[in-house]
Amino acid sequence: MDKYINAPFSSEDVKDLKSGDYVYITGTIYTARDAAHKRMYEALEQGEKLPLDMENNVIYYMGPSPAREGRPIGSAGPTTASRMDKYAPSLLDLGLKGMIGKGKRSQAVSDAIVRNQAVYFAAVGGAGALLSKCIKKSEVIAYDDLGTEAIRKLEVENFPVIVVIDSQGNNLYETAIQDYQR
Amino acid sequence: MIRTVKTEEITKTIKEMCIEANHYLSKDMDKAMKDAVKKEESPLGKQILNQLQENLQIAGDDTIPICQDTGMAVIFVEVGQDVHVEGGDLEAAINEGVRQGYVEGFLRKSVVSDPIIRENTKDNTPAIIHYSIVSGDKIKITVAPKGFGSENMSRVFMLKPADGIEGVKNAILTAVKDAGPNACPPMVVGVGVGGTFEKCAIMAKHALTRNMEERSPIPYVKELEEEMLEKINNLGIGPGGLGGRMTALAVNIETYPTHIAGLPVGINICCHVNRHIVRTI
Question: Looking at this predicted complex, what is its ipTM?
Fold first, then answer.
């Protein structure tokens, strides 16, 4: 089913999103991938403040290619989410509501999604040129020294994603494959 | 007769190839992706494949890389033994081409200088270069920028001779099943069977650069390629791993003599952005 949602969003909004839904996100989301997650995780261990508030926010696992002049961003598709599995449960427990990536998640992440009434979306892997068209603004807000891995604040318009793990823990990767297995 | 090739020409060629490969799929891959749209049975799978068609169109029209992971530059260099390279170090010339291509072409810098310390080299060098010395007076260069979503799902299995062809089949299916959505299907599966530990992995990588319309010239290998493609596409993984028929576009297998005690199998998985272009200087 096609749905439209504004980001940031709350647990209440997440309840309506079901595994398999095709969702268009409009609003503000943030990027972070391997190196930024490692740094945030270490900051939490040290008892330091994170450079962005997790509450009701969405993190897009993405490191863009450089923007050409006059464009907000370069190619901007999702990276493999499982590399963030070590860090994601802590961020979900701090109020993170959505993650956008591609690929499987661990049981610990799935449990944290249900526990915190959050959602894991997949964007289409390898569609970075197409997805860049839905990103209207991009600004590095932390860890600038990490280059493509810096944390960016993005303004997105009708950014297309698919619900993979919903707040009940249903997992599209597990169910969809069964329909086409021979 | 010895023919002279200048390093400047090598640098310029590599630079152009890095940029071209990241914005345009080769004709054979492009055709395979178009055919996949027709063959896909799942509505969501078809929708994803159509998005990927649109993505390719935008990449070419607006000069935006097809995928943000513009890869680590894997380069096969076949140097004719009658070529004299003039103007400095060949390897430095290749890396300079990668540097210029990635910096001037607005490609992502995805290489870190040390696997543990992990500082970005900021110009995507060094490349991974596989040289071979061949007959003739030309240099044949294949540039294949490799993304790591799929690279991470690749495997080497050191099978026993008793495992035989069934063992090889199981190894391929295991790797593809484990890769699932992580490797951005529809994927291309490169396989190297035989040789040694490192030889099978390099063959698997090289197999990914094969023209998609070509099958192995060895009859039993050709049959194996076709059988494995069918088995993989019966797994149901589909485009994006969200269910469907088009899990793989091709299975390309290379073989090599091996030791009486061994049966090495390397499986290098590539996403649908299987970039490979060839030029000869």
Answer: 0.94
